[in-house]
Amino acid sequence: MSTGQGPPIDSRRWTGPEPAAPPLDRRGARAAFLAAGGPGAAAPQRAASAASWAGLALLPFVVLAGAEPGASLLGLEPTAARLRGGLEALLSPSLGLKGAGGMVSLLGDPRLLAALLALGGSAVGIASAWRHRAALARGFAAAEAGVPGVAFRTHRYWEAAPFVLLLVAWRPLGGDLLLLNALALWLLARLAAGTLTALAERRAAGLGARSPASSGWDLASLVLSLGALLLLLAYLLGLLA
């Protein structure tokens, strides 16, 4: 028995597909975010950045301590030898000669510094995000107002940074390219800390990664990335065979 109703009519035959969401004016969104959220909205990324820049100040000492005896250090070879000798003399009474040598090698490994910076920067950034979640919520609401379907991000996402850091740091470093490798590791650590902080910011504000709705992908990315960094730290400290 027929109801007399024909097939449903799709108005897009005449109107065409729905228009795409307008692109987000990142500079304007950033200004709106800071104006609405105030200093608290900018605090998480600043905290993560501060940890990273503090680590950059330590990087030259790490490179000098970890340089091989025959490596070229632009005339700083005597300084590197004195630094290693001073550290070994300082640590020998408590660790013994062999233990002091191993500790100096560990302290001179830029992979360890990178892992600590990525974890430390992420930790302070995440803690700051949860502390300032009300300010972040106001900031995101203002930044994304009038632009449906587009998510504002306080940091340029590079979600692969923690895993690239894990893969790169798994290989031993040394030789004349130690400084270049150390700088690359620092950059990856900085990107990892900023990215994980950005994920935590949206979670703290009650937002998902790409939509106004809360998303479990943010939390999953945080857990996996932090787990990868902890795995790297355990490997460098010799806790993994």
UniProtKB/TrEMBL annotation:
The chain crosses the membrane at residues 112-130, 177-199, 219-240. It comes from the Bacteria. Keywords: Membrane, Transmembrane, Transmembrane helix. This is Yip1 domain-containing protein. Residues 1-28 are annotated as: Disordered.
